[in-house]
Design a protein that fits this description.
15 strands; 4-stranded antiparallel sheet; 40% helix; 14 helices; 7-stranded mixed sheet; alpha/beta
């Protein structure tokens, strides 16, 4: 066997050289080794509705989905997605030509960016952003252009002038996430109107990550960008079952888009996983048809947990940004006399027995995110109460 010389090029594709192990893997491993409560990675610690789990078991036993499902997804799920979009948002999509099932929203984002970008294309994304966005833009050969959400009056806000200034002749696509992870911001109708007008004016494609669409609080409203004038034909809308039904391990996501866009994205997606989650697709089709009472109760439960954790974090001395959506609370560690969120999160399991995630890893402008730390509240109430008790030790 011939050994590699020291002058050989790196094994990892240069486009991915800046990306190491994800912060979620690092912090979850730290939770295991220290026995700390994991409020870092965003996954529930209880399963979703029993009838939906049983629907998956029934599909397995009946032999539905145990072999390759259709490439675009099973018809039952594509129909359920289309009915959900129509019932909730008044958006009409053809299940046969405008809905695509994916291996979670993460694959949907990857397929969309790989399909729609060419080397040199610029992608404007709201910063901080979910870490897969940067990696997928890089894999597609694109250039990310961050527009930073900045703290203002207790929330993180988008500067629309800054967004307009970020668009150049090289901009191909806007990548939006609302409700927004990690800040909890929900873009308003006025903000979305301005974004839609900008996209139409500059002839931009838009990819929207809407996985937290059912988790908006305090009377806030999630409004899909595709509902705005001129946007349906230029928007790739992405969502998934994981966050809404608390089955994150099933990895069932979907895309809705006009036929030319969907065809382009499907061309890339078929060479990623091809298909996935066969039996789970049947269960998610049933989940999307659950009555509105399920979605309301789920939202109310998460809102109560948000309030519990937010209050506990404030008592522990953190500056707290109360989220309008998602299941994350972003905090400011400067009131604790800290400034480096990464160092803080690495030491927190030993200091307080709790794991969180530093927001700085979601920024190109690391200094802008340095003092912010994210905590997840999608956990059992007793777990959150214990985490709050432990965090109070930071202030004695």
């Amino acid at each position: 066997m011939t050994s590699m010389s020291s002058s050989a090029r790196p094994l990892l594709n240069r486009r991915l050289a800046e990306f190491g192990t994800t912060i979620f893997a690092e912090m979850s491993a730290l939770a295991v080794t220290t026995g700390a409560i994991n409020l870092g990675q965003g996954f529930p610690d209880t399963d979703g509705p029993e009838e939906i789990r049983e629907a998956a078991v029934r599909a397995l036993r009946d032999g539905r989905g145990n072999q390759y499902p259709p490439g675009p997804g099973i018809p039952e799920l594509r129909t359920a997605v289309a009915e959900h979009q129509l019932r909730r948002y008044g958006l009409s999509y053809d299940p046969g030509t405008e809905v695509l099932v994916t291996a979670g929203a993460t694959e949907a984002i990857a397929a969309a960016l790989l399909a729609l970008l060419e080397p040199g294309d610029e992608v404007v994304a709201l910063e901080p952003y979910y870490d897969s966005y940067a990696a997928c833009i890089a894999m597609a050969g694109g250039t990310r252009v961050p527009v930073t959400l900045r703290p203002h009056e207790g929330a993180f806000r988008l500067d629309l002038d800054e967004l307009r200034d970020a668009v150049t002749d090289r901009t191909r696509l806007l990548l939006l996430n609302t409700p927004h992870n990690p800040t909890g911001t929900v873009l308003t109708r006025e903000e979305l109107t301005a974004i839609a007008e900008l996209a139409v004016e500059r002839d931009l494609l838009v990819v929207t990550d809407e996985v937290y669409e059912h988790l908006v609080f305090d009377g806030a409203e999630h409004i899909p960008l595709a509902t705005f004038p001129g946007m349906r034909e230029r928007t790739v809308s992405i969502s998934s079952a994981g966050k809404t039904f608390s089955f994150t391990g099933w990895k069932v996501g979907w895309i809705t888009a006009a036929p030319p866009l969907l065809t382009a994205v499907r061309s890339a997606k078929q060479y990623l996983t091809y298909v996935s989650a066969g039996p789970f697709q049947y269960a998610v089709a049933e989940a999307l048809a659950l009555p509105e009472s399920y979605f309301a109760a789920y939202r109310e439960d998460m809102e109560a947990k948000r309030d519990l954790l937010a209050a506990g974090l404030a008592e522990a001395g953190f500056g707290v940004y109360r989220p309008a959506g998602t299941y994350f609370v972003t905090t400011d560690i400067r009131p604790l006399g800290e400034r480096d969120g990464i160092a803080f999160c690495r030491s927190l399991p030993e200091r307080a027995g709790v794991v969180a995630v530093p927001n700085a890893v979601f920024y190109d402008h690391r200094e802008a995110g340095a003092p912010f730390v994210r905590f997840a509240f999608c956990k059992q109430t007793s777990v959150l109460e214990e985490a709050v008790r432990r965090l109070r030790s930071l202030v004695g």
